[in-house]
Amino acid sequence: MTGLWVAVGVLLAATIFGLVRRRRDGVLRRVAPAAGDGRDEADMTGDRIDVYDLRGAVLGERATLLQFSSAFCAPCRATRRVLGEVADMVDGVVHVEVDAEENLDLVRRLGVLRTPTVLVLDAAGTVVRRAAGQPRKADVIAALGEAVA
């Protein structure tokens, strides 16, 4: 009987975990300041990315959609398509894809834990939004509104 309760508990915990992860996956969130870096909670700016970090890739005039991908990541292909479509729709916005395995220093600095991870950068290269997982097209467009404002 104890084994049955353990199995039910494990199934319940796994179901809750799956539902929470599905709800949070791909949501573009504001970038919170790092703890102890001198910025207060009202200042929601993130790290700054430049051409050197992207190994020569050009940043957009108005905003950049930066995607961290890996070779065997199926959601990365769908994310590439969505971000490419959005970048084509909005003037001055570019989509830059970075191989996470080849840029481990940048991955560590930005705290990228999984692929795809999408960062929305403003014209200065400051991270304003980020998502772990595949974002929806409407969410990307809304996040761009903040970046280009």
Measured between the Cα atoms of the first and last residue, the distance is: 60 Å
Biggest β-sheet: strands ordered side by side in the sheet: 1-5-4-2-3
Structural class: alpha+beta
What fraction of residues sit in β-strands? 15-25%
Cα Rg: 18 Å
Write a structural description.
By secondary structure, this protein is of the alpha+beta class. The chain has one domain: Glutaredoxin (3-Layer(aba) Sandwich). The chain contains 4 helices and 5 strands. It has a 5-stranded mixed β-sheet with strand order 1-5-4-2-3, with helices on one face.
List the SSEs and their pairings.
Elements: H1 2-24, E1 29-30, E2 63-69, H2 74-89, E3 93-99, H3 104-110, E4 117-122, E5 127-132, H4 137-148
Parallel strand pairs: 2-3
Antiparallel strand pairs: 1-5, 2-4, 4-5
